[in-house]
């Protein structure tokens, strides 16, 4: 199973490299402009590479399950962020090199006297700088997520279209049949992709709505939302996965949020999501009326025991509401009568905030489940672990055998906890390929 996922991962990496490099290879074929220096050609090559990588960003964010399956959504989105910066640097390098080595190129920077192809390039570059700046400083600037997301999509489309206009108007680099076919295919693909993401996919979701059937209060200012499919059989998902939820009459809304399933995967007709009151939107969950329409896009995520049928045991590490996907795993294991050992580390602030505390205790009676609570602010007479979830605490309870495939680790919680725990696990000799995490800091 792990070998199959590795081969899938290698395959999609190879596809990405081919698609990113193809314009470069086609560019160097055919006639060359007279008096072109090495640096001019190198600059153009960087520009083509940057453009193709920017266009491929639409694929990375289109939520294709097949592409994300070998890696997990958080890794794909992380790659999207990092490779965006690489593409940005390539585009800037393309411009800077041309400006340095060519007097004619410097003259093109005078916007109002420049030809149309140069004006398109200037506007595209300025908008690309704005797009990157808003993405990097969205949180420090406290930009509304929905507004940012809409503007991010619009800016991205305009940047790529203007860059394509620049390439077409320059003309020489697409003056052979191979080049024309390649860029026509790229352009058609991007248009079809946008058509699918913005029209076809929402229309498919429109045919499978859900309704809120019940809201249950949980410990730790959390609420479990029960939903029912309307006119369809529901959605099959794996324990530990998540979905994007859109609340309202239409799935075309840009206001959607990712939440983990907290129910057993054995009940596709009655899924639940447990949501903690953390932000402006999540504080309104408790006020949702019964019958509220919801559209569910998913499932997504690779953090699931179902992906490791040959595993002998599992280690679950949850912080705060990161316990939701772990409950889905444990509830599913109970219904399937899974006898494999489960070790749960649950880090919370106080004992009263331990969501699902009573049910977890019941599960210890029916599953081979060991629970290690780590309380940041423990009550008097507390005999368990306290403070932060450290390497020392992990070492005291982790299985002694930590070689490859000895057990699988799933982590979900606040970003600082996940980063610290992943580092500690590697230091303790846990095979990195056995560590799986789901982050919801996707932008």
Percent of residues in beta strands? 15-25%
Rg calc: 25 Å
Biggest β-sheet strands, sense, barrel: 6 strands, antiparallel
DSSP helical segment count: 12
CATH topology of the largest domain: Four Helix Bundle (Hemerythrin (Met), subunit A)
- Which word captures the global form? elongated
Q: Please tell me the total number of domains.
A: 3
Strand order of the largest sheet: 4-3-6-1-2-5
Description:
- The chain has 443 residues and is an alpha/beta fold.
- The protein has three domains: 2-204, Four Helix Bundle (Hemerythrin (Met), subunit A), CATH 1.20.120; 210-300, Elongation Factor Tu (Ef-tu), domain 3, CATH 2.40.30; 305-437, 3-Layer(aba) Sandwich (Rossmann fold), CATH 3.40.50.
- Helix content is 47%, strand content 16%.
- It has twelve helices and twelve strands.
- The strands form two sheets. Strands 4-3-6-1-2-5 form a six-stranded antiparallel beta sheet, with no helix packed on it.
- β11 (408-412), α12 and β12 form a beta-alpha-beta unit.
- The longest helix is centred in the middle third of the chain and has 30 residues, at 177-206.
- The protein is elongated.
- The model has no long low-confidence stretch (mean pLDDT 85).
């Amino acid at each position: 199973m792990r070998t199959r996922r590795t081969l899938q991962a290698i395959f999609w990496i190879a596809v990405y490299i081919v698609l990113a490099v193809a314009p470069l290879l086609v560019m160097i074929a055919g006639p060359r402009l007279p008096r072109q220096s090495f640096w001019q050609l190198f600059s153009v090559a960087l520009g083509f590479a940057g453009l193709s990588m920017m266009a491929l960003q639409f694929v990375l964010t289109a939520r294709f399950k097949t592409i994300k399956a070998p890696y997990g959504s958080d890794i794909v989105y992380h790659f999207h962020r990092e490779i965006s910066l690489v593409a940005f640097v390539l585009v800037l390098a393309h411009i800077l090199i041309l400006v340095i080595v060519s007097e004619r190129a410097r003259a093109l920077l005078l916007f109002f006297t420049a030809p149309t192809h140069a004006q398109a390039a200037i506007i595209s570059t300025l908008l690309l700088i704005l797009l990157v700046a808003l993405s990097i400083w969205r949180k420090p600037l406290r930009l509304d997520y929905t507004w940012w997301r809409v503007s991010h999509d619009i800016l991205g489309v305009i940047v790529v279209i203007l860059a394509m206009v620049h390439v077409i108007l320059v003309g020489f680099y697409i003056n052979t049949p191979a080049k024309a076919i390649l860029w026509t295919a790229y352009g058609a693909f991007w248009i079809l992709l946008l058509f699918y993401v913005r029209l076809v996919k929402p229309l498919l979701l429109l045919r499978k709505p859900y309704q809120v059937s019940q809201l249950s209060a949980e410990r730790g200012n959390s609420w479990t939302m029960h939903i029912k499919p309307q006119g369809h059989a529901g959605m099959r998902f794996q324990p530990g996965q998540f979905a994007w939820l859109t609340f309202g009459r239409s799935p075309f809304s840009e206001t959607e949020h990712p939440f983990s399933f907290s129910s057993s995967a054995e009940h596709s007709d009655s899924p639940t999501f447990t949501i903690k009151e953390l932000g402006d939107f999540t504080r309104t969950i408790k006020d949702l009326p019964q019958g509220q329409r919801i559209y569910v896009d998913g499932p997504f995520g690779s953090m699931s025991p179902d992906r490791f049928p040959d595993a002998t045991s599992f280690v679950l590490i949850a912080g705060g509401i990161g316990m939701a996907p772990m409950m889905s795993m444990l509830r599913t294991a109970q219904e399937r009568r899974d006898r494999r050992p489960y070790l749960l580390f649950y880090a919370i602030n106080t004992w009263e905030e331990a969501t699902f505390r009573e049910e977890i205790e019941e599960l210890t009676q029916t599953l081979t489940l060991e629970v290690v609570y780590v309380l940041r602010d423990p009550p008097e007479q507390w005999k368990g672990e306290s403070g932060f979830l450290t390497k020392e605490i992990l070492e005291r309870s982790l299985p002694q055998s930590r070689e490859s495939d000895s057990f699988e680790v799933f982590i979900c919680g606040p970003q600082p906890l996940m980063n610290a725990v992943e580092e500690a696990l590697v230091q303790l000799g846990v095979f990195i390929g056995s560590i799986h995490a789901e982050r919801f800091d996707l932008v």
